[in-house]
Design a protein that fits this description.
Shape: globular
Number of strands: 25
CATH class of the largest domain: Mainly Beta
Structural class: alpha+beta
């Protein structure tokens, strides 16, 4: 019979022969039976008290009966008949993490969205009312502030550097799945930098096989040092339950949102001022790249930090501060999590040679001023609010293009002409009646002159240009 302790020691010897193993001593395999039988219990006892349950309550208006919208009933009761709406209270359940002694709690935006009242229940069953300090839909993160703490010392979790995670690291997921009470599951980091998920505007997730279910949203993903490495936010499931693929927002993004809440400001997102595309195998071959990795720059804003730093169309960005970027989503995440006022180093390939560029981390400017203008009258834009497109407006609306100029729809009144013809918030008006639209004043002048009922229009929606006659 082979002795277990001898087998483990042989395994350790083999691993030390693997290149790079000397740099992974903190993640060495167990070398004794005692280490194999270690429990997660001490780690859970330290981390679990900082994970809370969140109960969000919202009031929604519900029509007594949609039948009264039917033309048949309106023949009898009149088209302008209005019945009072019935109020209904909805409750949602999620999890959160205490991250500061002042009572700041991080959770998901979708857990507390449109909530009228939020209750936070700690692990010891004490209960507090919470206010929303910041809620950011684009990152799906929210920060709550507990009321009436009266000097209580709160348990909390420290944030780790999520860039230090490796695939295969052990993690714990702590939350309140299905409302059954606080639950702990274990697993490993099964993938990093997942960007093709489509959950938030900043797709860059830690993937784990630790069981995550409805109710875990906003809960903690904890490393083996008891630090917060991510906020559990979504699962991939065909049945509604855990199937071994869960996604967490990295702690480095969480840190940026917490800092904004502590400043009392909205989330300030640095910008690069560059458009890019994924490097395919064909593109890599044409550019003489060894592997299809990085971001090919195909557009630059003249006022952007990338232009100021000397980045050019056709350059390939391989890394930001030494961290590889595989696609545009990863590049956006790396820039968005950098501290304002500092510089980042871009590793760039140009004409087959690699070089480094120093780029300033700064906010997108509002140049030109947005000049928000409501549109009325007899035209297809009636009911819309338009404004000049600037880098700041582009970021605010989540537009991916770095177009330097144009007019964008900022807001829309439901049921108005602009709404009925199919225009949407975020549409960039490129041309109207044959005239190029570069400023709000130009658009207003074209609308004033009119065309006798025909309005040829071209708009940019996402990455498409749509042309129609309204």
């Amino acid at each position: 019979m082979i002795r277990l302790d001898l087998l483990l020691r042989c395994l350790v010897v083999v691993l030390t022969m693997v290149p790079g193993a000397a740099n992974a001593q903190a993640r060495a395999v167990p070398d004794s039976v005692d280490q194999i039988t270690l429990s997660f219990a001490p780690l859970v006892q330290r981390a679990a008290p900082a994970v809370v349950n969140i109960y969000a309550q919202r009031t929604v208006q519900q029509r007594i009966s949609p039948l009264f919208d039917d033309p048949f009933f309106q023949r009898f009761f009149g088209p302008n008949m209005r019945l009072p709406n019935r109020e209904r209270v909805e409750n949602s359940l999620g999890s959160g993490v205490i991250v500061s002694p002042e009572g700041l709690v991080v959770t998901n935006h979708h857990v507390i969205e449109n909530a009228d009242q939020i209750r936070v229940v700690l692990a010891d069953r004490s209960e507090y009312v919470a206010d929303i300090a910041l809620s950011d839909e684009r990152t799906d993160l929210a920060v709550l502030r507990l009321r009436e703490l009266e000097g209580r010392e709160l348990p909390l979790l420290s944030l780790a550097d999520s860039d230090g995670l490796l695939v295969g690291d052990l993690v714990l997921a702590i939350g309140n799945p299905f409302g059954v009470g606080q639950t702990v599951t274990s697993g490993i980091v099964s993938a990093l930098a997942r960007t093709a998920v489509g959950i938030t505007d900043y797709n860059f997730f830690i993937q784990t096989d630790a069981a995550i279910n409805p109710g875990n949203s906003g809960g903690a993903l904890v490393d083996m040092q008891g630090n917060l490495v991510g906020i559990n936010t979504a699962i991939f499931s065909r049945s509604g339950g855990s199937q071994g693929i869960g996604f967490a927002i990295p702690a480095n993004m969480v840190r940026a949102v917490i800092a904004a809440a502590e400043r009392g400001t909205g989330v300030s997102r640095p910008w690069l001022g560059a458009d890019g595309q994924v490097i395919t195998a064909e593109i890599a071959q044409s550019l003489d790249l060894e592997v299809p990795s990085g971001v090919l720059i195909n557009g630059l804003h003249p006022l952007g930090p990338a232009t100021e730093a000397g980045l050019q169309v056709g350059d390939v960005i391989l890394a930001v501060n030494g961290r590889e970027v595989q696609d545009p989503e990863a590049l956006r995440f790396r820039i968005a999590t950098q501290p304002l006022g500092e510089q980042v180093t871009l590793s760039v390939v140009r004409d087959g040679a690699e070089q480094e560029l120093q780029v300033d981390v700064e906010l997108p400017p509002e140049i030109p001023p947005r000049n928000a203008t409501p549109i009325g009258g007899r035209n297809p834009l009636s009911g819309a609010v338009v404004g000049n497109l600037s880098p700041a407006v582009r970021d605010e609306l989540g537009l991916l293009t770095v177009a330097a100029s144009g007019v964008v729809i900022l807001d829309m009144q439901p049921g108005t002409v602009a709404d009925r013809v199919g225009l949407e918030i975020g549409d960039v008006i490129l041309r109207l009646n044959g005239a190029a639209i570069d400023r709000v004043e130009t658009l207003v002048d074209v609308l004033r002159r009119g065309t006798g009922g025909r309005w040829p229009i071209a708009i940019r929606r996402g990455d498409r240009v749509l042309e129609d006659i309204l």
